[in-house]
Amino acid sequence: MQSTRRNLPQLLGEARRWFEEGLSAAMEAAGAAPVSATQAQLFAVLDDQGTTVSELARRMSVTRQTAHQAVHGLVAAGLLEQVPHPASARQRLIRRTQEGERVHRHAGVILERLEEQLADRIGREAVDALRATLETSWGRPPAPGPL
């Protein structure tokens, strides 16, 4: 008989989707242009001073091509811009436009509200414990060993 117990990565993925869907619905209700989950993730890992496409791809665990496509969609929407990299003539930095900064701040407020709604549903103590657990360093993943 197969176990119906979901593993921790599945549960974390479902929790992430809960926030992504709530954020997307709230942004759309506020009149913001729809963005894909990949584009929203890109916004979350983008440094304030700008980040290269290669670094974005690494942080998102996607191919460089996938990150590049997400960047181009957000540039076309007026939320991101590409600027010369100060240390490399061959690279460009991706950073938020003024409108992108406004949208990013608005998304942060929505995420705070979603966290409060979650606390109303499962309890403030549970949300605080979850946050404390996830903020704790887990160290490097263990080296593969015998199964």
TrEMBL record:
GO terms for biological process: response to stress. It comes from the Bacteria. Residues 5-139 form the HTH marR-type domain. GO terms for molecular function: DNA-binding transcription factor activity. Pfam families: MarR_2 (PF12802). InterPro entries: HTH_MarR-typ, MarR/SlyA-like, WH-like_DNA-bd_sf, WH_DNA-bd_sf. This is MarR family transcriptional regulator.
